[in-house]
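Risk register update: the risk of archive-format incompatibility is retired. Evidence:
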Amino acid sequence: MDITALNSTKALRKHVLVWMCLFFGSVSLFFSVLNVFSGVFFLGFLELCFSVYCLYTIYHLNKHALRFWQSVVMCVLVCIIVLYANLISAPKYGLFVWSFALPVLCYLLMGKRYGIFFSGTVLVVQSLTLFSKYTGESIVNFNMAINLLLAYVSIWTVSHIFEGSRALSSKRLKNLALLDPLTGAGNRLSMNHYFEVELIDKTNTYLFLLDLDYFKQINDKFGHDVGDKVLTEIATLLRVTLAKGYVFRVGGEEFAVIHSFDSKENALLAAEKLRATVEKTQFNIDGKKIKLTISVGVASHQVNSSLESIFIAADKQLYKAKRLGRNKVYANSKEHKNSELIPA
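Archived output:
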């Protein structure tokens, strides 16, 4: 599965933003020329600046990933231009109809939380603007005002429901793709996604590769149902012990933890803490008291190293820990061929 496919929300918003910049930038440039020739210089200047910003945003998005602030700025600028245009123009020109596009745009680009705020703000400001312009001869009479209000609220409601449903579906699909269904830990795809996409600063990043010692004996003695529950308990224990680490299940009884540490010594101490915690913990599963140990291989991120290379390095140290007696922590080191932490 392509990792980038997991960022469906960002991809959607980037696609929408590019096309909105192209559309609104072109329209804004057209109206900028009209307003300048009509003597409305300030509005024309605003629209020209907005067109330039849209062009720059398209250029930037073609080379870089979407940043959330870009969506916010786009929505703010569009709302300001639409509301200001309605403020200085007469209702007969019908510029207020542009307000109906704003809830859809805000929800698509920013999601529910910001969408509801911007949509509500636009409704209040636009209502006050139209009310201030109401006269006996105004095109906006009472009946039309009610219909405009209901139409706007309808579009707002549909946008809110659609974005909420879309976001929930996206989250569920992402969880199905990224989480191990048994333990709730991340799977291999999740680990790749975290390392390649979400982990921006990889400096001082360490990978712990853990294997449950003699886990097959637990399955043979107590059954696979008990073994599955042990795996779930282990995943929970790893998350609690390393609260800021990211836990992934990468094999039958193998787990990986990705965490940042200030030094290699702190990383080794944390790995030893994991090993000691598991050794001291007694798991009560269906009335059965189970104790087990883990072997740990530790590897650090080097400049330009890939996740695969770090994983292979940690796997070599894990193999050494299991070959030399299990229930141990091994890590590669530049100063020494191998460094070992032997349990007390």
